[in-house]
Each structure stands twice: as structure tokens, then as C-alpha cells.
Amino acid sequence: MPVGLFRVCLLVITAIVNHPLFFPKENGTVPENTEEIIQKMKEREESLRLEQLRLEQEIADQEATQKALEKAAVVVEESKEEKVRWDMWTALSMVIFLLIELWRQDFQEGNWQDIGGEEDDMAVLGKAFKGVTFPNKAVLASFYEKRILGTTGDMARMREMVEGFADDLLEALRSVCNRDADMEVEDCMGVGSMYENWRVRKPFVCDLIVPFAPPEPYCFRCQTWCSGDSFPPDEQGYGTIKVCRAGEDVTGCICDKTKLGEDMLCLLHSQVSSTRPSSEMEDLLCFKNTQYLDADQVMKWFQIAVTKAWNRISHKYEFDLSFSLLDSPGALKIKFKSGKSIAFNLTPVVQYENSDVYFISHFPRSSLAADTPSSTHWFLTFAVYERRFIQLVSKTLPANACHVSCLQILSFLHGKQCSLTGPSGLTNYHLKTVLLHLLQARPSQDWAPEKLEARLQDMLKFLEKCLHEKKLYHFFIGNGNVPAELGFPIVFQRAEPLNLFRPFVLRRDIYRKMVDTFHEMLRNMSALINEYTVHIPLAHTNGIRKE
Q: What job does the chain carry out (predicted)?
């Protein structure tokens, strides 16, 4: 702007100085071309005015550009500050997430078994118990003596009879099998409620597992969902069994994965041993065109082998033997001429490495595993360790401890309720898992016989909590507090806890049925117990309440 004003002033001064009126000619007369000079001066003035406007526009444009640059600089500075602020919040959020994850892992490793054994934790539960009359100590004691003890006295004699017959049957099975081609059958072991002394409902059924192994030179290579390989969520708790030659790498040689060409030979494997006919693997009970053991093939083999074994020794016994369930390989029933019968399950299993964890081919009726992903997926059973844990803990409990009584009463009530309203997803294995958690969480003195009522309420409240949260964790898997005396495999202790209620999360109809059955059992509990209880005088009941 000052430059433009200066030029205008300079122009005016020049015009004044050169004006003819100020410097007249010598004759003092006005020239004849005055009009022409005036016209030129007007044109000059117009051109100067246009130049002034152009200069003013340039100055305005420069000022606008400067303001835009300053504004852009401010925006960039603010964006930098915002980015720094956002980076700070991101880092803080990441730190918080890591802290939560570390706390979760610590909770699962050390405290996930802390199920609220304190009275304060139990106080927040029990919403379903409102309006439910719970039997007192005298009624529970009378019910247990009359209904439970009165019907379980013959279990020991039945176990002895079944085990003796099973040993004889398996010995005959070994004799009819081809030792060079058939599976090698080992001695059976008793597991489950009959051998843990808490079975209450008839008919009494003994559960026996029979480990078997492949013939030489083959061996089993087991893989579980927690062995490092990725298993889908619905396959947690399962594993696969690969049939390999002894000394063969489980991952296989590179010659099985790469085409070496006709003129190249693997130095580790001959041409004969590198390719196995599919018929050979099928003879080893593998799934078609694979090396993985097939549970359905095992079922067929075992049923045929048991039938042959029974035909060899049937003349020694005065009863008949038959398969009681078509979908279970070893569900057998002994039928006497008197009409009485004894049922037992003889189920083939595969040992996991050198432990007492077993891959089980099929579960009996009302089993823990309803639908297996495929016939090459085997469920893992920890029944041997469960029995040992109960025996180990029982040695530390007071005399006549009430832990088994609690499980027997709860199993009886659940069974009676299912007979009234139909079966539900809740099984006796779930009830036993609740007891195992409480046995580990509560001190030994809390299981004294006079605390039967309190511990039974604890089991019901804990089960209610699990149903509400849809979470009941397997006792052994992911439990880092398993007693070292059991020799439990560390790989399962370090695994993620296995939620036994996970199948019910997506199947809302079964879950609703399970919850309704539980609530109905609570409402009918007093009626079911009083039905099998001798009348107790009111004065005696009140006296116990005052104590």
C-alpha cells in the first residue's frame, strides 16, 4: 500500500511540474493543441488509477495468502498435539489391557478354584432358594439311613462278581485274538460311581475300562487339544490317536511330503516301508485312507471279539450274556434264569503316554460327551485320577465325613426329578465335579458328619451359581493345585480351564431345560425326601434345631 501511494504522489508532482500553465512559452499564449494535451493527461491518469488498483489487489492477495499459511500452521500444530494425546491414551489402554490379562492368568492358575467357600460369598447366592423349605439335620439323617444305606449294601458283592467275570471274559478274548495282527488287550479297571461308593439309583451298573495297544511293530502316538496344535473350540477335551511304526517320527519323513523323483531314494526309508496299503491301516482299525484310529472301527472289533470270547466260555456259566445298547461297544447285560439281570460297561480305552489319563472310544448312556466331532476324535477321561483324588482327600477328613453322603443325596434328588420331568443336560458327572471343587476349597473339618445340611446347601448354591454363569470348570484341566501325590500330567494342569457347560451356551433350549429341572428339584426336595423318611417327632426336630 505505501508503494502505491508513493507512486501516485510522484505522478501528481510530475504532472504539476510539467503543467504548461506553470511554465508558459515566451510569447505567453496558450498553445493551440491544449485539448490534445488534456486528453493525454486524462489517459495517463486513468492508467495510473488502474495500476493503483492492480497493486492494491496484489497486496490483498499477499495478505490473504499469509493468513492462510498462518492458519494452516496452527492446524498442523493442533493436529500434532492431538496425535501426541491420542498416542498417550493408546499406550495407557495397552498397559491396562496387559495388566488385566496378567491378572486373568494369575487368577486361572492360582485362584480359579476359589469358588466362594467363605460365608460372605455364599450369601450373595441362593436366589432360587427363596421360599424353599430345606430339610433339617434329623430329616436328612433319617432319609440317608433309610433310603441310601438301605439300598447300597449289595454294591461290594456285585463289584466282586462283575470284576471276576470280566477278567475271565478278557482272558478268553486274548485267546481268540491273533497276537500278530489284533489289538493287545490289558486288564480292566473299575471307575465311576460304583467304585467311588456314591451310586444310589438302581439298576447298579459297574463301569470298567479296558486299555488296548496295537500289535508289534506299531504304536500309538497321541495328540490332545492342549499339545500345541490348534483345535477348534468344540474339540477341546478331545484328542487324536495316530498309528505309527515303532521308532517312526510322528511328524513323518520329508519323503512322504515331497516328490523325490523316480531316480531318488530316501536314505531313511525303503520303498517298501514308505508306502502302506490302505487295507493294512484299516486292519489296524484306522479311518479310511488315514493313520488315525477310528472309534467306530474299534467298537465293531471289540463287539466281535467279546462275542467270540463269550462263545468260548459260555458253557462255564449258567446265565446268558448280551449287548444291552447298540451304540455302546461294551454295554453288557448278564441275564440269570431267575429273571434277574446285572448290567455293566466294558469300554475300550487308549492310554495317554505313561499316565492314567485315557482316550475313551464311547461313553455309556447319559454320558459326558454327547456328540463327538468325528470318529477319529477321542474324548479324554480322568476317571482314574478322580477316584484317586477322592480316596486321597478322604484320608484327611474326619471319621464318617459327609462328602460322599452329600453327593449321594444330590444324585438321588436329581435322578428322581428327571424321572418326573424327563432328562436334562445336567448329569451326575456335573454333580461330582461340584463336589471335587468344594473338597479342594473347604478345610477338612467342614466335612464332619454333623455338617451334612450345610455342605449340601453349599453344593446346591454352587451349582446354582454355575448354572447362572453357564460355567462349570473341569476339576483337573487347568487346575494348578492338584496334589502332587497323584502324579497328574503337568500338560493338563497348564492348559486353559475346560468349561463343562460350554455346549449349553449355544443350545438355549437344553440350557433352559436344565435350569428348570434344577429349580423344580429344589421345590420338590422336601417332598421327595419326606416320601422316604420315617416320621420324626416334632419335639425331637425342634431340639435339633436349637442345637
A: Enhances Ca(2+)-mediated inhibition of inositol 1,4,5-triphosphate receptor (ITPR) Ca(2+) release.
* pTM score of the predicted model: 0.71
Q: Residue 181, Cβ neighbours under 10 Å: how many?
A: 10
Output 121 or 76, whichever has higher pLDDT: 76
CA distance 165 to 310: 11
% of residues, the chain, pLDDT over 90: 41
Interacting residues of 305 by C-beta distance below 8 A, sequence separation 6+:
173, 176, 177, 182, 185
Name the nearest CA neighbour of 250 among 286, 219, 213: 219
> pLDDT tens digits for 34-63?
778 888 888 888 888 888 888 888 888 888
- DSSP codes, 44-76: HHHHHHHHHHHHHHHHHHHHHHHHHHHHHHHHH
> Is the Cα torsion angle 416, 418, 422, 428 positive or negative in sign?
negative
Look up residue 160 and give its three cell numbers: 466282586
Mean pLDDT of 23-27: 47
Amino acid at site 545: R
Give, in degrees to the nearest 5, the angle at Cα 226 between 224 and 229: 80
State the chain's mean pLDDT as an integer.
79
Q: Which of 253, 487, 484 is nearest to 352 (CA)?
A: 487
Given a cut of 60, whether residue 153 has pLDDT beyond it is yes
47-49-52-53 Cα dihedral, nearest 10 degrees = -100
Determine the Cα angle at 211 with ends 206 and 217, to 5°. Answer: 165
Q: Is 269 exposed, middle or buried (0-12, 13-18, 19+ CB in 10 A)?
A: middle
Phi-psi region of 197 (alpha: psi -120 to 50; beta: other; left: phi over 0): left
Pairs from 541-546 (Cβ < 8 Å, separation ≥ 24): 541/136, 541/138, 541/139, 544/136, 544/137, 544/138, 545/136
Q: How many CB atoms lie within 10 A of CB 78?
A: 10
Q: Which domains does the chain have, with CATH numbers?
A: 120-149+397-535 (1.10.1410.40), 151-248+281-381 (3.30.460.90)
* pLDDT single digits (tens) 234-271: 778 889 999 998 766 544 454 444 444 444 444 444 44
Query: How buried is residue 131: exposed, middle or buried, by Cβ count under 10 Å (0-12/13-18/19+)?
Result: exposed
Sign of CA dihedral 412, 414, 417, 422: negative
Can you give the pLDDT at residue 281?
58
Q: Which of the 8 DSSP states describes residue 148?
A: I
Nearest to 346 by CA among 313, 310, 371, 380: 310
The number of angstroms, rounded, from the C-alpha of 73 to the middle of its chain's C-alpha atoms is 55
Dump pLDDT digits (tens) for 334-388.
Answer: 999 998 999 999 999 999 999 999 999 877 654 444 566 688 989 999 999 999 9
Q: 374 vs 86, which has greater pLDDT?
A: 374
Rounded Cα distance, 163 and 171, in Å? 12
